[in-house]
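Lab notebook, page 48
Experiment: co-folding of the full assembly
Goal: obtain a model of how the components sit together before planning crosslinking
Operator: M.T.
Materials (sequences as entered):
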Amino acid sequence: MSVQVEISERNKVYGRSPLLTDAVMHYCPGCSHGTIHKLVAEVIDEMGLQDNTVGVSPVGCAVFAYNYIDIDWIQAAHGRACAVATAVKRLNPERMVFTYQGDGDLSAIGTAETIHACNRGENIVVVYVNNAIYGMTGGQMAPTTLLGMKTATSPHGREAAIHGYPYKIAEMVAVLDGVCYVTRQSVQSPAAVRKTKKALRQAFENAMAGRGLSFVEVVSSCNSGWKMSPVDANRWMEENMFPFYRLGDVKVVTPTAI
Amino acid sequence: MEDIKLIKGNEAVALGAIRGGCDGYFGYPITPQSEVLETLMELRPWETTGMVVLQAESEVASINMVYGGAACGKRVMTSSSSPGVSLMTEGISYLAGAELPCLIVNVQRGGPGLGTIQPSQSDYFQAVKGGGHGDYHMIVLAPASVQEMYDHVFDGFDLAFRYRVPVMMLADGIIGQMMEKVVMTRQRPRWTAEEIAEMSDSWATTGKHSGRERNVATSLELDSQVMEQRNERLQARYRQIEEREVRFEEHGMDDAEYVMVAFGSSARIASETMEMARRDGMKVGLLRPVTLWPFPSKRIAELAAAGVKGILVPELNAGQMVEDVRLAVQGGSDKKIPVWHYGRLGGMVYSPDDIYSELKRRSDECAG
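Observation: model returned without errors.
Model output:
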């Protein structure tokens, strides 16, 4: 039995976001950034915000985010994205402003800027991609690196006595009054991708409605840094990262409660 | 009727910001410049001109807020004092690299380290040689009066946008804290979104519209050949600034046998020295660089070539601007004339008498 499929606009159920550029992504095969970029682009496009959005890219693997999503971008110094975004939003309150940062950028060198933007309740979105390692510089230990995890700067595995403990900055910012939404998601499966997109959409809507800062953590794999195949890295993430970085909403302040 | 106020230098910066059509000020308290932020918070300009004022969590955050605002084509500024400016140098390098205009005010205090809260001019090198990493310059304005602390806000923004470079106003604790009369100019309106679009659509991150490619504010370029081209573009602009924007003031230069070169508060003190010397019949002139970068090297070389016997450089540091004066003399004149430094350190300030004694000692050496 053969099924005739009519290829037409009418039957189109999915397509590439028009906001994704034709540039070939520099990310390693298996990296989560490409998927998360796609979701951010889709949300901006679906909300009709292309001409009204400024993205702030970090230092780290996502530094070149500006090559892939066709909006205006500011490339921030290492860790300072939330300070940069604060000024952009304060000076242009009608604009959609988001940062896109990794765990080294946001939760190590940028801890102060992140926490204070959260505490001030800036009406921005922070997209926080946590793969528990410094990717761009070649796989060094991050504050988020799990105990026992081997990296270039913890070659014998992270030991609490030497390196301290991994920490959950999402839970830390959730206690701040300026933050309206904190969620932790992932993109290793179609279902997870859909949930992350929904979370991003919620966050962007919060920012446009002036509800305070929304913080979307995406627990991700770095198969190159972790020295695994993409499939193994995703499995390792599910078995080791998720028990520590638990998925789901950490804080939701409903609009009526504000 | 003229609008004249008796105010502190730091207050003049705040008023200059509001009157000058500044869009945003981002700062952090530090002595001796906290009155800038305090005055702005007192005056609440967001209710009048719409100017944003924000107390940041650090100088690091302040300068990166300036970076974000500047990227949007807005007139934005910060102010601090020496240790705080050291914290800002990373951000200043990024601003220079991304070719973004802004104003940074340094009301200097003595260092190194936490140093003292007393006035100093020991951040000259940091200001005029770049300060942060990479080959870059800021235009550096050195106010010598409260009026100039007001006026240099306007000038600073104009220069910053003319060349898309960060501009520093290098003041010190004396001028920041002292009170003088200031003639206030009329309110200059903030730019509208349309004006910003008209002026800065080729680079400002105002939201990508269908009429142009996306704008990206960045200092990053991994292809070294392209990075070299970016650097060359910056250097070409710096040469243009050196050609066009040197500013200085001269007094008593027509018959001067000895010249003092001094900036900021030192120039105020040295002008008193000049009058004392002239009363005694000593022919002394004073050159006050208003721009420290670009430096009035050509004029100094002319003076050396014209037969000045010696140049004294009083500055509140261990000898910084004196190096640029020596370079100017050596590079621009065949005549070898002595260039002397005279300084006090760590927040101590010389009197006109102190400078005069040094001038007499040096001129006697010359004569002897």
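Interpretation: Chain B has a mean pLDDT of 97.
Next step: discuss with group before ordering constructs.
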